[in-house]
Amino acid sequence: MEDLIHISAVRHTFRTASGPLPVLDGLELSVPEGGFVAVVGPSGCGKSTLTRLVAGLLIPDEGDVSVHGAKIVGPRSNVGMAFQNPVLLEWRTILQNVLLPLEIVPTKLTKAEAEARARKLLALVGLDGFEDKRPSELSGGMKQRASLCRALIHQPEVLILDEPFGALDAFTREDLWQIMHRVKAEEPFTGILITHDLRESIFLADQVVVLSGRPAKTQFVLDVPDVGVRTLDHLYSPEAAEMLNILRHQIEVAQGRAPAQVTS
Amino acid sequence: MTARQVLVPLAAVVVFLIFWEALVWVMGWPNFRMASPSDLIPAYQKYWDLFLLMGWQTLWRTVAGLLLAVIFGTMLGMIMGFSRMMRDALYPLLVGFNAVPKATVVPIVALMFVGWHDFNTVLIAFMISFFPIAVSVSIGLSTLEPEYRDILRSLGASQSTIFWKIALPKTLPEFFGALKVSVTLAFIGTNLMEIVSPHGRGLGALFDSGKTNSDYPLMFAVLIALAFLGIVLYYIVVALEKTFAGWADRSV
Ligand SMILES: Nc1ncnc2c1ncn2[C@@H]1O[C@H](COP(=O)(O)OP(=O)(O)OP(=O)(O)O)[C@@H](O)[C@H]1O
Ligand SMILES: [Mg+2]
């Protein structure tokens, strides 16, 4: 499969009031079309910065970030983003919130078709019946699901998720993991998922990339074997335990709390 | 609006008037200490035409000053909200300007634009009321979470699209909060000019003539008329807020 997203030798430094802050240095990442890559790493290492590069919101000082072989030089309309903060517009209904990207991105859909698509997506994540509610009437998990629909409404090539489930309780989070699998089956996308939750990374992604501490470089890549339909039970299998162990060790290395060689 | 929402405040006003009347009667105060509501009725009857004319003068000049304050305050707020540098540059100036008691500015303005009565009054109403609007708009815009911007920017939206679709509506609740303060301030500004620099226009001038003629019921009648106009303006702003930023009200 050809790589849809390709990041190589990326280096970026922020100029802050207290001097230059190198954030990325030696970042390598490839996501094949239809692939779903999770990125984990120590807090503040530059994960969100990485998502802003892919979205074209930030141009790196050095290195190459390309989608479909074309270097990214600015925002392109074919990405969808969701963050830990669902950032829904409180003055719009859920349906109007989901439709927002279509007011910006050129679309071939008529108004009725767009609305039908939004309703279909909302039903897919279990929000049917909430189309005309305001965000303030929804729980945190429901807001996050609506924000996911908004990220997908314009059928983006790339879905960027920056810790979207980070603020949710454990049960709601596992709920949303399963919803993500359902969404991926119905609405295929190529995705990058930033997360702090190692179980989440191996449950959702087919590859986990561990970044080193700041300035972040690609430290370790783990391929998650394809086991067909994943269920939560898989997380309690010996294979999963093995992967989690390796990842936890890599995170400790990234945090500088463990020597680099793998012990297990 | 339900009947209750109208009747309860109305009943409160009636109770207040009865209490006032009773207080003056019990204490046996003469008119020059404190007029009672029953003294005001003849005052209104006698000067009704003047009340209508001068009330209108006060009202339109207040509203004109307020409209200028909204336009100028919003623009200033946008400049300071979008540019960190402009915020740093303008904030101390603005705070200093706001700190100057407007009663001291009134004679200066009155001298600067001698004879331009309407202009002077509108100017003071404007000067006293734009500050809260500018500050609220600038804070609303500068505290917009970056994710809101990123959602639209990643789709290739322009700055102006982001402003109209997100920044502006998101700032409306703060804007109306400030407008409620500004409407009262503008009113104070108009009356300051009318009283301090009397030129025979507005309720402030009517108040001043009551003072000159020792017509105490007239002075009190003006105060009540001012309170009434203030309430009307305030509730017009509340109605606008309900229409344009009602979504921010979580109490329903
Ligand atoms: N626009 C900016 N200007 C200056 N410094 C920035 C900017 N954006 C991020 N940084 C700094 O760069 C570093 C990496 O930020 P980033 O948000 O990418 O980290 P992260 O890995 O997403 O962190 P977290 O795990 O807490 O979400 C941080 O130290 C942050 O303070
Ligand atoms: Mg982050």
Structure report:
The complex is a heterodimer of chains A (264) and B (252). Chain A is α/β, with parallel strands linked by helices and 264 residues long. Chain A has helices at 47-54, 94-99, 111-124, 140-152, 170-186, 198-204, 238-254, and strands at 3-16, 19-32, 36-40, 62-67, 70-71, 79-83, 158-162, 190-194, 207-211, 218-223. In chain A, 31% of the residues lie in helices and 25% in strands. In chain A, the strands form two sheets. A six-stranded mixed β-sheet of chain A has the order 6-7-8-3-9-10, sandwiched between helices. In chain A, strand 7, helix 5 and strand 8 (190-194) form a beta-alpha-beta unit. The radius of gyration of chain A is 19 Å and the shape is globular. The two termini of chain A are 32 Å apart. The mean pLDDT of chain A is 90. Chain B is mainly α and 252 residues long. Chain B is globular. At the A-B interface, strand 6 of A face helix 7 and helix 8 of B. Residues 47-48, 162 of chain A line the site of magnesium ion. Magnesium ion binds at residues 47-48, 162 of chain A.
> Could you name the CATH homologous superfamily of the largest domain in chain A?
P-loop containing nucleotide triphosphate hydrolases
Fourth-tier CATH superfamily name of the largest domain in chain B: MetI-like
CATH class of the largest domain in chain A: Alpha Beta
Describe the sheet with the most strands of chain A: 6 strands, mixed
The number of E-state strands of chain A comes to 10
Spans of chain A of 5+ residues with little confidence (pLDDT < 50)? none
Oligomer: heterodimer
What is the largest interface, and how many residues per chain? A-B, 26 and 20 residues
Mean pLDDT score of chain B: 86
Topology (elements, then pairings):
The complex is a heterodimer of chains A (264) and B (252).
Chain A: E1 3-16, E2 19-32, E3 36-40, H1 47-54, E4 62-67, E5 70-71, E6 79-83, H2 94-99, H3 111-124, H4 140-152, E7 158-162, H5 170-186, E8 190-194, H6 198-204, E9 207-211, E10 218-223, H7 238-254
Parallel strand pairs in A: 3-8, 3-9, 6-7, 7-8
Antiparallel strand pairs in A: 1-2, 1-4, 4-5, 9-10
Chain B: H1 3-27, H2 37-46, H3 48-82, H4 84-99, H5 102-112, H6 117-142, H7 146-153, H8 159-196, H9 202-212, H10 216-245
Helix pairs in contact in B: 2-10, 3-4, 3-6, 3-8, 3-9, 4-6, 5-6, 5-8, 6-8, 7-8, 8-9, 8-10, 9-10
The structure holds adenosine-5'-triphosphate and magnesium ion.
